[in-house]
Amino acid sequence: MLYDVIIDGENHRLELDRPDGGWRCRLDGFELRIDAVLARPDVLSILIGGKAYEIKRERVANDMHLWVGSSRYAVEVRDPRSLRSRRTGASTDQGPKRLLASMPGKVVRVMLRENAPVEAGQGVLVVEAMKMQNEIKSPKKGIVHKIVADVGTAVNAGDLLAIVE
Amino acid sequence: MFRKILIANRGEIAVRVIRACRELGITSVAVYSDVDRASLHVRKADEAYHLGPAAAAESYLNIEKIIKAAKASTAEAIHPGYGFLSENPAFARACADAGLKFIGPTASAMQMMGSKTHAREQMANAGLPIVPGTSRPLQSPEEAHEVAAHIGYPIMLKAAAGGGGKGMRLVHEPAQLNSALDSATSEAQRAFGDGSVYIEKAILSPRHIEMQVLADEHGDTVYLGERECSLQRRHQKVLEEAPSPFVDSEMRRRMGEVAVRVAQAAGYTNAGTVEFLVDQEKNFYFLEMNTRLQVEHPVTELITGLDLVHLQIRIAAGEKLPFTQDEVRIRGHAIECRIYAEDPDNDYLPSPGKITLLLAPSGPGIRRDSGMYEGWTVPIDYDPLLAKLIGYGTDREQAISRLVRALNEYFVGGIKTNISLFRRILQDEDFHRGRVDTGFLDRLLGSMRSEVQAKDARVAAIAAAVFAHLDAASASTNGGGRASADETFSSWKRLARLEALRESSQ
Prior knowledge:
The complex is a heterodimer.
Chain A: E1 2-7, E2 10-17, E3 24-27, E4 30-32, E5 34-40, E6 43-48, E7 51-60, E8 63-68, E9 71-78, E10 97-100, E11 105-110, E12 117-118, E13 123-129, E14 132-137, E15 142-147, E16 154-155, E17 160-164
Antiparallel strand pairs in A: 1-2, 1-9, 2-3, 3-4, 5-6, 6-7, 7-8, 8-9, 10-17, 11-13, 11-16, 12-15, 13-14, 15-17
Chain B: E1 4-7, H1 11-23, E2 27-33, H2 40-44, E3 47-52, H3 63-73, E4 77-79, H4 89-97, E5 101-102, H5 107-114, H6 116-125, H7 141-151, E6 155-159, E7 169-171, H8 174-192, E8 197-201, E9 207-215, E10 221-233, E11 236-242, H9 249-265, E12 270-278, E13 284-290, H10 297-304, H11 308-316, E14 333-340, E15 342-343, E16 349-350, E17 353-354, E18 357-359, E19 366-370, E20 377-378, E21 385-393, H12 396-409, E22 411-413, H13 419-426, H14 429-432, H15 440-446, H16 452-455, H17 457-477, H18 482-505
Parallel strand pairs in B: 1-2, 1-4, 2-3, 4-5
Antiparallel strand pairs in B: 6-7, 6-8, 9-10, 9-12, 10-11, 11-14, 12-13, 14-21, 15-16, 17-20, 18-22, 19-21
């Protein structure tokens, strides 16, 4: 199997096979002797050329990070045969903008109503969690097309709060 | 000694106090809000009483409900922990009125220290060193300009009722003063219901060092050494250590003696902390007194060999301090890391949620005071502090290396935490040299990530592919590979939902 792995923005190509239940691994074209055991869900004991590592997998919303000791790496895995990429389309100023919650919490204030004009950088609503308030600002000048999450709504990180056009 | 104590708090500190009660043979009573029924403190206590809804005002800050629970449980004393009602004189008074012993200072001592301006005035009158500035709330912008010009810029505006950095502004020049005054006043009004602010001379790159004191109800007061608390972010402490690498025994004695005089001037009893600002020339100034047990009390416990919560309870029960100042010995070095539910990828904003996996460190020189467990959902309603990891060693280097080792073992899955931040702090060269001030953390976070990171990136790449391979294999063998496949599915579903919304809005 082929995997394209992006670690902190850097691409690596992995080839993995399991002949006779063992592992065969090529990293960026180099053959490596590895052994891996899933100690428990999200915890991997891995030996690479005799060196032992414990790897922990952190999955929160759509983010994945791997911990090697206490170093933490942002990870994305792609199957190169798939044409579909999960992160599509670079953002531009064109078209409607979706305002997303940057943390889980509760909407405590909505400053602008639907159809109200909004400036770039102007606060649209406020999400509160753990005594911290996070103001969600409009990324562009336009009008508030829709307020999806009103005052009192509990939201998760990444949830849609409002749309600016 | 008390037979039964109610703990008017939650999280790791409630667990800490419950443990002390158990060690002393005292029955512990927990209280909890709707969202805390399954929290660790409720599981660990001998008895538990429901308070009400999640909102703190209707639960942990509700004096009436807590007193009622204490009466119903026949507790004789209340330990307030830190935060919530711990520094509220009305609560201490309500306890006394209800015939309950409040484990902490008297309401009047608390009141005197509760107003920063009042405390400054009292301390100045007692001849103790305070940062130059006003000791009364400012009456007008004109007065502010006058005072600022008199003590010289830069100056710091501070909320009289303040704490936690709210209502605080650094002002470099007269032109900035009016707008800073406006924003500090309105922020203080919102945070504390009291908009009064005062002026202090700004001490640039100060250290924040505090002195632990302990006073019994028979007139004896001792100091138990300092804690270095300069590592802060948004005026919240992140890492503390004792002793401070900046303080020698002579300076410790002088600071300790001032702290004892501060406590005595306030008629203080029980455990308390005197905070000082320290400048580059090792001049120290009284900042405020915290009239409660501090979050960071374990570092003092480790270097003195004392149990501060035991002592708090004994003092409240009327016992005399079991040792004198001369018998207090400082041995070794301790460092505490505050583990917060915060997202390091997103400016350390809160990250509550369900803990799906918890790997906890142990081994020599490691103490962990935690309020979390695997399977528990961290509520969005309270402070993000999950646990404290404390390393102890015969010297600072050993304490650091033990912590670095323990952090390698520590992992919290399902939510994001600030654990990875501590590796960066503990491996920083300035930190190793003890060169820390209150600007250290912002400078560190502003700098590039360390190169240590690159070394294991290839290991992470291999592991990522192995995880993907194992996920696919388990999905095909057990017809769906429950956990991972479900999660992938739901994130796809979410993506699809977002796409649909975008489509519909076009």
